[in-house]
Amino acid sequence: MLVPLLIAAVVGYLLGSLPFGYLIARAKGVNIFEVGSKSPGATNVRRVLGHGPGNLVLVLDALKGAVAAGWPLLATGLPMPAWPLMPVVGLTAALIGHSFSCFTQFRGGKGVATAAGGFVVLFPIGALVAAVVWGLTLALTRYVSLASMLAGIALTVAAVVRQTPPLIMGACAVVMIFVIVRHRANISRLLAGTENKVGKSPVETHAP
């Protein structure tokens, strides 16, 4: 049982650590850790480089989570006690890898897109509810950070209402807490009224 879980954790972490935001920005001569919010997440890439690169990072980061959670579901010959845990372990490790990537000196994004991709696989209805809440909040407030945190809360509420298995419900709660903690600086800016809104033109950037 321990070996399959360890494999899921290692594969998930390495997948999550792939720094797509950093690499895409670097290809355009920008060190994403030095501009904007200094995050390699899709929101900062979009703000700095525009919608094309930002949307590409969003898709790739979501794909990391989907693969980390999805490949154990397709694996065969696994010990049955380990099987239900492997997708959750894989996604959890991918979130840690995305936020603390071994390829970028343990810096990274906030994990929202990666979590979303994983829950499309693990809990599709919950992912849909979270996406609707995210979209409505963004449309009404234009704050990506607030939309992301409320989406995490909505995901957990959906898991409780749907009476999902305890493992999935627990994973939703862990991700909700993880996302909120990763947004603690944004929470301070929201309370101070200084948080950035979407819709601003990309900032001027220069190659480092």
Helical residues, percent? 55-70%
Figure out the total of helices: 10
What is the total domain count? Answer: 2
Tell me the fraction of residues in β-strands, as a range: under 5%
What is the global morphology?
A: globular
Cα gyration radius (Å) = 17 Å
**Can you give the mean pLDDT?**
90
For the biggest sheet, the summary is: none
How do the helices and strands follow one another from N- to C-terminus?
A: HHHHHHHHHH
Span between termini:
47 Å
Low-confidence region ranges: 201-208
Structural class: mainly alpha
Q: Strand tally, please?
A: 0
Architecture overview:
- The chain is mainly α and 208 residues long.
- It has 2 domains: 1-107, no CATH class; 123-198.
- Helices cover 69% and strands 0% of the residues.
- It is built from 10 helices and no strands.
- It has helices spanning 2-17, 20-27, 42-49, 51-74, 85-99, 112-122, 124-141, 144-161, 166-182, 184-192.
- Helix 2 (20-27) runs antiparallel to helix 4 (51-74) and helix 8 (144-161) runs antiparallel to helix 9.
- The radius of gyration is 17 Å and the shape is globular.
- The relative contact order is 0.14.
- Residues 201-208 have low confidence and may be disordered.
Keywords, separated by commas or semicolons:
single chain, 208 residues, mainly alpha, 2 domains, 10 helices, disordered C terminus
